[in-house]
Amino acid sequence: MEGTPIATPEGERVDAAASSEADIHLEGVTKRFGDAVAVDDLTLSIERGAFYALLGPSGCGKTTTLRMIGGFEDPSEGVVYLGGQAVTDLPPYKRDVNTVFQSYALFPHLNVERNVAFGLERKKIGKDEVARRVAETLDMVQLGALAKRRPGQLSGGQAQRVALARALVNRPRALLLDEPLGALDLRLRKQLQLELKRIQQEVGITFVHVTHDQEEAMSMADTIAVMNKGKIEQAGSAEELYERPHTAFVANFLGVSNLVDGKVLERGIEMATVETDDGTVRVPCARMSEAAGDAVRIGVRPEKIELVPAEQGVPDGRNALRGRVSIASFLGVSIQYVVIAPGGEELTVIAPNRDGGQPSSLGVGHEVLLTWDPQHTFVVARDA
Question: What's this model's pTM, rounded to 2 decimal places?
Answer without folding.
Answer: 0.85
